[in-house]
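Action item from last week, closing it out:
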Amino acid sequence: MKIAVTGGKGGTGKSTVATSLAVEFAKTKKTILVDADVECPNDHLLLNAKRKKYSNVYQPIPKWDFKKCTKCGKCASVCKQNAIVFVKGKYPAFIKDVCIGCKACMVACPTQAISMTKKQIGTIYTGKNYNVNLIIGELKLGELASGEIVSSVREKSEEISKKLKSEIMIIDSAAGIGCPVIASLVGTDYIVAVTEPTPSALHDLKRVLYLANHFKIKSGIVINKFDLAKNFYLKIEKFAKKNKIPIIGKIPYKKDFVNSTIKMKPVVEINPKYKRIFKEIIEKIKKSIPTTSL
């Protein structure tokens, strides 16, 4: 079973929820946690897990044979990223850090002067702690193709999952609703949408739930720090009821959650009383997918 943890707005506590659910699941099931927030992966810090390099991620980039190049400039005209700079009468200049590897230049070249080589755009790591097998995608500094890294880490997680015969896969997505988040959500069985009682969080939650509805993935809402603004919490509750989306968890604002981050220890291990909250979330997910073998 694949569960995605997302929410739109950054800072709502997605990683705290993802790691805590993984720790609880891992007590009875073989569990993999995929950190798909590839621009700022930090699940290994919350679990205090040592990272080990698993593989590099590469992207195709063009390479010119200037013996064949006629300086026509067609390669630059089709490059939507402006990674190719052309001045009439000169050979094209290539800015590889801007290239996303679409290969349009190679297709457009009338003399077949362009072939493909590759550049490293990221790294995939593994780790383990609290019986949770961790797979981490990390975008190389300065690169743009975060969606490519998410797709790659999803692919590698499937590969590792088969080897380990895992039963649960939890995917911790990035903030937002862009390509990296969509790549995290597609193909999952359930979406845990984490929010907080603020106007911006509710606004972004609605956008994420639109994605869940678009891809026809069942979802539930977890309200983090629900007791910080009870009036706005009621607005989230009203929205959920109107749209028939279950609230599967409410997490209080407590210092234990801050200590969890500082001490690099899951909150369910800092204070056992929080186990009940995450066990209840797990039970509600199970009820939403009755055909699962959980």
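Closing note: The mean pLDDT is 92.
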